[in-house]
Specification:
Chain lengths: 285, 285
């Protein structure tokens, strides 16, 4: 079985490592615009060899792990090329546009829209790691459009590498990701920007970062190449939730100005319930 | 030597543990409104016994680790009571009001305004830990107002438990803390509030939290009892930096609406330089 990984970064690389462990006879071929990443992946043993897009007719499995704006262009072309029993899945953070663009493709059933909730703020194959997906959710979108035997293979493989599965339609996925993930990134990027603009002394940023800044600003290290297209594709949902966030911040500021500290106390107390949610819910499968 | 710890929580408790390790003959006495915390601290061996405020005339060293609104009331009374060679230091997150309130006190020189940049979003003596301050900054404010021999004792003790020292005036401290710490907490609390309001399904919050939410919202677990008075005491600086943050978020939203994704890319790219700052600066001492 030949597995092609298009975009051999943190996610594509980590998934290749786990699948190769699971199916040792699998041949892993890497494709990437970034020749340095390809060389690193080869040296690290993540891929067996380099490949090119024009070989994809011989692929049995394809992981599409490139920025979402490139996926919407490349996926239809990939489906044009692949053989009848091939399975292509993506790992992108937005799903509506991608599902739409192949909705009427004759080989739609050879595609599975997937979003593993795993990774860090770092990118590139040198950050790929074995077991990254252990205990992590894999969101599958519009999975009824995937051919049942291919879907079944994917579900088994994802579960074998430790993931639990959630099923959503693409629009629901994009809405929830705007709420829980995309807003967090904007919040973090703009926090970092604000502090960089105001704080003249970088030593202060370093010394005082342990007082809360470091964790809230972690996501501001994320790749703009990855995130700009996500915000573009999920623009409506992102604007909607960003507006709600700004409104809450404006309200907080207003209460400060009014000296209404009882109200601020109550807002924070209510928000503390997140602790229970983040600690207490058992995953479904 | 008798060390009194007023407010035996995460910070006061951790500091007591390290000082007791450093000076084994030191007797550690705990004072707290919260009887459960006192019992825990006694059981955990963090304090040798419980005490009361009316014994403070016999204290040699006092750590004041209670919410900042209580410190401004209690500190003058403590100074009224202590003997000539006693040293009191606080560990609070705001400094201007506290320094002001004892500015003309006849025993001002027995007080040192300190702010250890350490801790987590949790509170209480059960989270106290040995070595918490290792490699962490200790900010000393207006340290010239402290009697030199007492200051010297404190500097040695803080360095011995692993801290490096920074010196600031109280107003500078409060301004920088608003930038780097207090804004982070508001950003995180309001992010948590926004997501709780919009996301009906708690399972989604749990499943998708790994996609960025978990780290940005960590501070929203913080204690409102601690944070409300900090925002109150540092209101002017907090409003100022919160306004700048809201302005950046409004600008981000505007660029989204305008489809100016090149500008968003550039903003994120510039903010990525935080990685270098957070990784690369060596602490002064």
């Amino acid at each position: 079985m030949k597995l092609y990984v298009i975009g051999i970064g943190l996610i594509g690389g980590s998934m290749a490592i786990d699948l190769k462990n699971l199916y040792p006879s699998m041949e892993v071929i890497g494709i990437d615009n970034n020749e340095t990443h390809l060389d690193q992946a080869l040296k690290l043993g993540i891929i067996d060899k380099k490949g090119t897009l024009d070989e994809l007719y011989q692929a049995d499995r394809i992981i599409l792990s490139i920025p979402v704006k490139d996926s919407v262009i490349l996926l239809p072309k990939i489906l044009d090329m692949v053989h009848t029993d091939a399975l292509v899945w993506d790992v992108g953070s937005t799903k509506s546009q991608l599902c739409n663009v192949v909705n009427t493709h004759p080989k739609r059933q050879n595609f599975l829209a997937a979003h593993p909730i795993a990774g860090t703020e770092f990118s590139g194959p040198s950050y790929a790691q074995e077991g990254l997906f252990q205990g992590k959710p894999q969101i599958l979108c519009e999975s009824k459009s995937t051919r049942p035997d291919l879907l079944s293979w994917a579900k088994t493989a994802f579960r074998e590498i430790g993931m639990y599965l959630r099923f959503m339609d693409a629009q629901e996925h994009d809405k929830h990701m705007a709420y829980v993930s995309h807003l967090s990134h904007i919040s973090s990027f703009m926090l970092g920007k604000t502090v960089l603009e105001r704080e003249d002394d970088e030593q202060n940023i370093f010394d005082l970062a342990g007082s809360g800044f470091e964790s809230t600003v972690r996501l501001a290290k994320s790749s703009p190449d990855m995130w700009t297209p996500i915000f573009e594709q999920n623009k409506e949902n992102v604007i909607d939730i960003l507006s709600a966030y700004i409104e809450n911040l404006e309200n907080f500021k207003h209460k400060l100005v009014q000296n209404d500290f009882d109200d601020l106390y109550q807002q924070m107390k209510l928000t503390n319930q997140l602790t229970t949610i983040l600690n207490g819910i058992k995953p479904n499968n």
